[in-house]
Amino acid sequence: MRLHLKIWRQAGPTAAGRLEDYTADDVSADMSFLEMLDVVNESLVRQGRDTIAFDSDCREGICGTCSLVVNGIPHGPDRGTTVCQLHMRRFKDGNTITIEPWRARAFPVVKDLVVDRSAFDRIIAAGGYVSVNCGGAPDGNTVLIPKEVSETAMDSAACIGCGACVAACKNASAHLFLSAKISHLALLPQGQVERDRRVLAMVEQADADGFGSCSNEGECEAVCPKEIPIANIARMTREYLRAMLIARR
Ligand code: SF4
Ligand code: FES
Fold first, then answer.
1. CA 105 – ligand 2 centroid, Å
2. What is the dihedral of CA 89, 93, 96, 97, to 10 degrees?
3. What is the phi-psi region of residue 8: left when phi exceeds 0, alpha when psi lies from -120 to 50, beta otherwise?
4. Nearest ligand to the C-alpha of residue 80?
5. 3-42 pLDDT, tens per residue?
């Protein structure tokens, strides 16, 4: 396939960015999207030109590092899929593909397609952990947790912290990420000790980092590669109200 690419190039956080045109030749349908970009970069190296910066690590959908907006959709057109798992068979010879970084004030561009997502690290550092000493791994069935509760907690814990939910939201809200992290701990007995302090601290940190609020439109759920449901946001709101009332009392 021959593909026409429009790729966001930006030299640094304060530089002006623009879409630049590239052509990718001999693209195999079996290549992943990131392998296609590797091939474009190899050709730029041969020409002595600056390569396109983009993030990736595991390239198998588990680390949350890849972060490209493909034709206006964070992680591209396939549902429940990270962009590193997107394959070129999804495109046709002659297609034009626009590739941009996550766009949110809280995720400033570092270079080209790479954004700084350390705001998510600050939210986790504010309370996304259990600091009580739980001892070693307990024997099976010593901490009884109903099956549906453990399944819901595990589903929430599947969030890989990629930030696509923020990139898809017109408010640049981090509510889906926040609610997944708050839910998986609030549902389990080990997370109860810090339950109220956690939700207040994490929401406060998200506000301080400039993420917007939620207007319940569901774009976050639609692009989430781990299909985290927005029901988590309702749970987070209940957790927040509960913590506020207890704090006032
Ligand atoms: S909720 Fe989904 S889209 Fe948001 S950070 Fe987690 S995995 Fe990524
Ligand atoms: S590179 Fe790890 S999830 Fe895409």
1. 22
2. 20
3. beta
4. 1
5. 999 999 999 999 999 999 999 999 999 999 999 999 999 9
